[in-house]
Amino acid sequence: MNPPLPSLHPFSAAQSPALGGALQPVFERGLHQPSEGEPIWVIRLSPGMIAPSRHSDGPAWAEADLYSSKVHRRCPVIGRWQGRSVLLSLVRHAQAKAAGWPGTRHWLLQADSPELDLLITAVSLAAWEEQHQFCGRCGAATQARYDEYAKECPRCRLRQYPRISPSMICLVWREEELLLAQSPRFQNGMYSLLAGFVEAGESVEEAVHREVKEEVGIEIQRLHYLGSQSWPFPHSLMLGYWAEYHQGEIQVDPTELVDARWFHWQDLPLLPPPASIARRLIDQFVEWRRHAAED
User: What residue stretches are annotated with the Nudix hydrolase domain (predicted)?
Assistant: First the structure.
């Protein structure tokens, strides 16, 4: 007999297995304007790339510095981390490419859980800063607000906030197996879960049914929500579900996937990194099946 499905609980990049999944407020979002000479963190990045630190007194992707209004006045402040304000230094893509900066995924895949929350935020906001320099209604150059993280048009007063795109990610299971798929973006043979964006006018649950049907041709039942995680490709909020297989045979959509197949929970392929919501959903399923096998 199967044990009950796991209860709902929040996923967070700041969760720590050592603390039983408790949230750690290691990154505090907000407009913390630093004072002259105050210690700060600076993350140098462009869309899709983050610079390695030139110093050894901090993370490999952030530099410790002292705030100077002359040097840093154009750098957006995104919050505080380890007691210091975090600033973004935005660089043109051509310059970052010429310097050979590592790609965003390189840093995300090797970050530990407390660092991942900050990195995801920095990458998402850097993309938003780069893409919203002008008003989408009248075309005037936008200006940053200082009472909230937003941009405002000085001509027509249209206010814009960082974009968030809801998307679903789903672990489909049947008895002892779970369905895993390989995207053409995966270069190392990794398998992960089915995912896709929620379309206009659609509920997340409708999106789960639709995406699973479109990508692998099967029907599902008994959706069970487990939690969410932001992911900066490009600005997703991933809503994580389990769903039980209902009927149908796997028919892979070649425009979306390279492969999809059932795997026994004790014989899994290369999986996403532990801090990702995909891996957390998979790990919870393995733990659930292990408890069922022990009963």
Answer: 162-286
- Sign of dihedral through CA atoms 258, 264, 265, 267? negative
Q: Is 236 annotated as a binding residue?
A: yes
Q: What is the pLDDT of residues 182-212, one digit of tens each?
A: 999 887 889 999 999 999 999 999 999 999 9
Q: What residue type is assigned to position 170 of the chain?
A: C
Parse the chain into domains and list their residue ranges: 24-130, 132-163, 165-294
Q: Give the Cβ contact number of residue 291 at 10 Å.
A: 13
What topology does CATH give the domain 24-130? Nucleoside Triphosphate Pyrophosphohydrolase (3.90.79)
Model-level pTM? Answer: 0.85
Per-residue pLDDT of 20-53, as tens digits, reads 344 444 788 888 889 999 999 999 999 889 999 9
* Residue 34 annotated as part of some ligand binding site: no
Q: Which of 52, 121, 278, 275 is nearest to 185 (CA)?
A: 278
Question: Would you say the C-alpha torsion 46, 120, 274, 292 has a positive or negative sign?
Answer: negative
Q: Does 232 show up as a binding residue in the annotation? A: yes
Question: Is 46 marked as a binding-site residue?
Answer: no
| 170 in a labelled binding site | no
Q: How many CB atoms lie within 10 A of CB 144?
A: 14
Note the CATH number of domain 165-294.
Answer: 3.90.79.10
**Per the annotation, does 234 bind a ligand?**
yes
Determine the Cα–Cα distance for residues 108 and 216; give it in Å rounded to an integer. 28
166 is in an annotated binding site: no
Task: Please indicate if the annotation marks 138 as binding a ligand.
Answer: yes
**14-32 burial, b for 16+ CB within 10 Å, e for fewer?**
bbeeeeeeeeeebbebeeb
C-beta of residue 137 within 8 angstroms of C-beta of residue 156: yes
